[in-house]
Amino acid sequence: MGFKCGIVGLPNVGKSTLFNALTETQAAQAANYPFCTIEPNVGKVAVPDPRIRKIAEIAQSAQVIETQLEFVDIAGLVRGASQGEGLGNQFLANIREVDAIVHVLRCFEDDDIQHVDQRIDPIADAETVETELLLADMESLERRVENAKRRATSGDKEAKATAAVLGQALKLLKDGKPARLTEPNDDEEARLFREAQLLTAKPVLYVCNVDEGSAAEGNEHSARVFEKAAAEGAEAVVISAAIEAEIVTMDPADRPEFLADLGLEETGLARVIRAGYQLLDLITFFTAGPKESRAWTVSRHARAPQAAGVIHTDFERGFIRAETIAYDDYIACGGEAGARDAGKLRQEGKGYEVADGDVMLFKFNV
Predict the structure, then answer these.
(1) Could you tell me which residue, 349 or 36, shows the higher pLDDT?
(2) Which of 357, 364, 227 is nearest to 297 (CA)?
(3) Among 81, 146, 315, 332, which one is most buried in terms of CB atoms within 10 A?
(4) CA–CA gap between residue 111 and residue 65 (Å, rounded)
């Protein structure tokens, strides 16, 4: 299990260039004209985590398998998308299918690359996309809220909860605020809110695409985006799609020196993944053995049976217990045998909340 991020933004902000760099492919055609990405391109990329290599070395694993992150490069959006302008209907349909929105914003000056509005203003760009999502959500909710209110008058408890939570979301939308700021009163309202699948309820990561010289510290454009993200509970990162595209073509051994010369400690991919994990509140656990060491992703607060189910549904259905070693203990004790001898291997049951870095072996019976 990884997570699925939809890369969105206005035409010519660097979406496809970033997608190509992140997935180390040329699957998406990057060109200097609107709508060069007609169908959403999907790319999977390994999530870099140095812990898996250390685990594999100790376990003497024949193979290392990292968890994966899925990116979807979604066609550029223009004003009126919520009414079907441009590729609007397709854009909105594709965005409903992702877990989070990676919103690429142009934060660089380049006279050779046209901007759809003939100006460089990442905040205005963000608002253009957000307005279309807000309008689409408002249209979706208005009738549903009225119907729920009508049913609630007859004593329908679910309808009453629906009217309350979606009514709150609708008010936010009418005030120009995203639905993700909605605060459900209880678990039932939270469930109903999730099931509404609102576009503006999805978590957002703003990616500030800057020029090469601003890749390390950002610039005045990206600074404004960070302020916006902080104000609305979103995340933001600075990345130079041009640099990432160049890194892809390099020998891996040459990349650290290249990054160091630019004042960078890691690639943009690593920053995007870390921010994405934080945004979606995800953690990684590991399995290890002679055959393979493997990284898996689950939501924070996931219980042991849920983690087992990520590997195979039979593991969750027939879950008995999980033999669990904290990552630091696994390394310090030299693996499973040493951890067992040192009393660091724990037997955890169905109620155990998986911790980031846990090395786990599931016992099950079906």
Answers:
(1) 349
(2) 357
(3) 81
(4) 43
